[in-house]
């Protein structure tokens, strides 16, 4: 027997129209370097979204077309967040930190029809503009008062000003694509994740529950997680759903900028990767005048949050860190670590041990751990296995990428590539990673890509790149290189770095190159990086 509840589509249109009716007095703001915060109301925001939607339509974009953004966090970027999906177009947030090669691949693969670019980032796109086959228009946003619109590009502000606002939105299906994000894979090109309206909608409800981030109208949210990284953890969408005050970090926000905004604007929620908080802490340590105690929740994740950091922010700065785990393929939320009511009486150290875990799976998502032989492991806090997930905001396949099918099990679970144990209370503790990637300051470096690039060097026999722990960036790459016998002792670190420089993004360059006799191999002849990781466990990269 079927129930009798309306089959009402879960789309962003509902969030937007509701917010415009009831939250029009609320505000959004963007940090403009040297000029303070530029503010406007949700009413202004909604008007400009309607204009931008109309402008995109006038440029010939249709339902399903990809609208690429290449931008810092800003209210304009936030306008595209809704303007594209409300028209049935797909918001594709391109990661500004990638190499020219990856950018070209991603934009062509996604077949972006327009690119909306911050003026201050134009220099990164200009060199590859001619290779972007599908891009018909480049629209430039002036992210400072002195910014110029390059020749051949359209002026974002002029487009918005000239357009007649959309009055009626097209009818959308909740399974229509709303957003798109590429993520690095262990091998090959980055892979596209295509978010649906329904997935984002449900994720917003999930992240707003009190035991998750508890986002609400009273929150003042500062967006530091890049809007090109898993939709800034989807928080901007939830911000509109809840009518929260939203502040965008603007171009290249530095730790001091973040502290200043938190202090001045009494920010209540600000998420970021541990690297950012480590840098913030270093400033707070020296400058006691800053007060960040308005923060009620720091969603922290992307890499493991150190227990000492969680404790320090609690005790010294009165700011509660909430450890979370997730990934681009999960929109991104998977687990959050809230200690249960019945653990309040535990000794302090034990409570912090719990809080340093990745936490328990959030309502809506299923999780299991599976060993290498495919056996589901018990939740006993000891057995380990790969985390597999499924749920209404978990990707069901990579965009136009048949090889990506290997990341899904036959019975419909997504294989995360993270290895963990889960205790009897459901708390996850990540212990390892099967994906051969390095996470530096919250962004991925592909060790395999870098190895291939190094092995292209005519004097190199083989090379393996491994992650070594780093105080500031959490992980940095260490290149272990075997020279061809005839070049033994005649190959230098500089040779390798000079060779890599034009081939990879600058921040990918290994902190150090060590020369070894051979890369250890497994029984089937693959590089055995476990052995190398063990060998260089205590390695301290050069300062
Ligand atoms: P991304 O898709 O770039 O957001 O990266 C997701 C990956 O980051 C996960 O699969 C993990 O490997 C890692 N990650 C995210 N959050 C955490 C966390 N709290 N602790 C450890 N690793 C994490």
Strand arrangement across the biggest beta sheet? 7-6-5-3-4-8-9
Tell me roughly what share of residues is in helical segments. Answer: 25-40%
Question: How confident is the prediction overall: mean pLDDT?
Answer: 95
What's the level 1 CATH class of the domain at 12-253? Answer: Alpha Beta
- Structural class given helices, strands, pairing? alpha/beta
Strand content: 15-25%
From the alpha carbons, calculate the radius of gyration and give it in angstroms: 23 Å
- Per DSSP E runs of 2 or more residues, the count of β-strands stands at 25
CATH architecture of the domain at 12-253: 3-Layer(aba) Sandwich
**Count of helix runs:** 16
- According to CATH, the fold-level topology of the domain at 12-253 is Rossmann fold
| Unreliable sequence segments | none
Distance between the termini: 67 Å
Shape: globular
Description of the structure:
The protein is an alpha/beta fold and 543 residues long. Among the domains are: 12-253, ANL, N-terminal domain (Rossmann fold, 3-Layer(aba) Sandwich); 438-535, ANL, C-terminal domain (GMP Synthetase, Chain A, domain 3, 2-Layer Sandwich). Helices cover 28% and strands 25% of the residues. It contains 16 helices and 25 strands. Strands 7-6-5-3-4-8-9 form a seven-stranded mixed beta sheet, with helices on both faces. Strands 2-1-11-10-12 form a five-stranded mixed beta sheet, with helices on both faces. Helix 1 (12-22) packs across helix 9 and helix 10 (255-265) crosses helix 11. The longest helix is centred in the N-terminal third of the chain and has 17 residues, at 42-58.
